[in-house]
Write a structure and sequence with these properties.
CATH class: Mainly Alpha
Shape: flat
Strand content: under 5%
CATH superfamily: DksA, coiled-coil domain
Length: 138
């Protein structure tokens, strides 16, 4: 199986739009340590959860944007740390991943599905798109 880069790019562009919409809905609210309940060990603190969601969504958006840039410059699928080819199953499971398993493990950060066997994946069809001046608009 090989990656269909046109479908991948459409999927990532749709994901970028979805994440932008999510960021617009998440109120970052300029949360500050010391705000009521901040960091006091409560199991659930609405401000902290909203703040963490904002950070996670923004980081994922940066990863998706970076993947689109790597597709454009021809380096998609190569680890940004060691330049080794990233396993295709890994790319299909998480299309915006930038590191091979070995380099990802060195960061100490695990994705929630790391090490899970991945079934064949087809990129979902994005919303209808149109082209303006050669750029895809969703």
């Amino acid at each position: 199986m090989s990656i269909d880069y046109k479908e991948l790019e459409k999927f990532l562009l749709a994901e970028l739009v979805r994440l932008d919409d999510a960021l617009a809905e998440i109120d970052d609210g300029n949360f500050q340590p010391g705000d009521e309940g901040w960091g006091k060990g409560e199991a659930y603190n609405e401000k902290e959860v909203a703040h963490r969601n904002h950070i996670n969504t923004r980081e994922m958006r940066e990863d998706v944007f970076s993947a689109l840039e790597r597709i454009k410059n021809g380096t998609y699928g190569l680890c940004v740390k060691c330049n080794v080819k990233i396993d295709e199953d890994r790319l299909l499971a998480r299309p915006y991943v930038s590191k091979c398993v070995k380099c990802q493990a060195k960061t100490g950060v695990k994705f929630h599905n790391e090490g899970v066997k991945v079934l064949p994946f087809k990129f979902p069809k994005p919303k209808k798109t149109k082209t303006i001046n050669g750029n895809i608009v969703i």
